[in-house]
Amino acid sequence: MLSFFRINDPYRLLILLLAILIVRLPYFISSTPLIYELDWMIIGDTLNQSDVTLYKDLLTPMAPLAALTYTFFDFLFGGARIAYQLAAVLLVAYQFSLFNNIMYKNKAYNENSYIPAFIYALLMQVFFDFFTLSPVLISLTFILLVLDNIYLRIENKLDDATILKTGFFMGLAVLFYLPSIIFFIATLISFALLTSLIFRRYMLFVYGFLLPIAAVSIYFIWFDGFSEMLNNWLVFTITYTNESLISIWSFLMIIAVPAIFYLLALYRTFSTSRFTNYQVRVQQVMFIMFLAAWGSWLLSNDKAPYQLVLFVPFVAFFITHYVLLFKHKMKAEIFALVFATLVIGINYYIYLNGSVINGLNNYYKLNVEESIFKNEVVGKSLLVLGDSKSLYKDSKVGTPYYYWPLAKETWLNFENPRNIAAIYSSFKKEMPEVIIDENEVLEHVFSKMPTIASQYQRVSARYYRLKVNEN
Fold first, then answer.
1. What residue ranges are annotated as transmembrane (predicted)?
2. How far apart, in Å, are the Cα atoms of 451 and each of 175, 427, 448?
3. Do residues 144 and 75 both lie within one domain?
4. What residues make up the domain containing 50?
5. Which pLDDT belongs to residue 362?
6. Per the structure, how many domains does the chain have?
7. Backbone angles phi, psi at 127, to 5 degrees
8. How does residue 326 score in pLDDT terms, banded at 50, 70 and 90?
């Protein structure tokens, strides 16, 4: 296996791309999206409506460039889930090619090969929700570009323009996934500890970082949504912490194999003295970035497996060292075969069967579940006062109150006149045809807005319908 990737032939990367497509094929065939895949598609579909502005007319903590990407995908492909998955494959292919090229041209290893790309691609198969186009995956692309420029700085090959570009890439990474801002701090630390960067270049890096953020801010100022952007994206992401979507045991099963091999690789790498001073500094940078990935994970709102992709380059870096440090190539081959079998095997076992101890996992929470109200909401504008965003699968978002953790600040504080005024204004703009009240708050709010309340019929405890004669 490894001997195939030791040959200096770029076509090996095409074979690796085909291998990824084959490994992911059973998942591509599946027609049921994960809950966050559905969330991204709903946001893209809603923002494609001409009168909807992100944050102002649609409450969500999604980063602005991620929302723009899903809007573009919805415009091109509609609700075709396969488009997101194929885009993810192509992006992963670009990433493992870029990662391998970074390691090759910066002489990070004592052997030049395509093994780094192979390990990187393999780690991208750790869990099946890595297989879709997530904001984290897109953000990681720009983090890799930043990483390349850090290495250039270590070799004193970095000019002012490249420093500016490095900051710009970091700004883009944050605009796709806000917790990536920890890598901004890690980059500054890497420059400070491992290079002799002058103050002017630090300022260039910060200027480059702020440039795309300023451009996005101007856009929202123009559309009178800047304060909403700050509150719904920046402040909310930093201050709000939700429970993990799956249990700690479920996470442990996902990360157990990569974590064990990573720790072995880390020990072997740092206990070996066969590296140049430059290679040692590269290793230190990669360890700092690994810690930054932990920081980003802790900052993320909803702890989901797909957010672990931020660890992939840094885990792949050290595991590649571990492979290349084997004195006997046959042992390295056996290691690679065992590692690949465990990673892919456990992934498919989880996807198809669950867990060795089925009572400890809750992977089912990642799937979109059918609701008892499914038939009542098909093709209608909908407002869900709760967390069941899966109801929007066959309907459209009515009113801005899509993301409940943001919306509940308004709906649960219904004694505040400002909140009632905001809700009333939203209803005057668009009357949702169906309201699902999971938190039993609608009657309290309607008592403050009798003219709006009179236009709805309460069908059941949680189900309200716009009266036909008022539609």
1. 82-102, 114-147, 167-195, 202-222, 246-270, 282-300, 306-325, 332-351
2. 41, 11, 9
3. yes
4. 2-352
5. 74
6. 2
7. -145, 150
8. confident
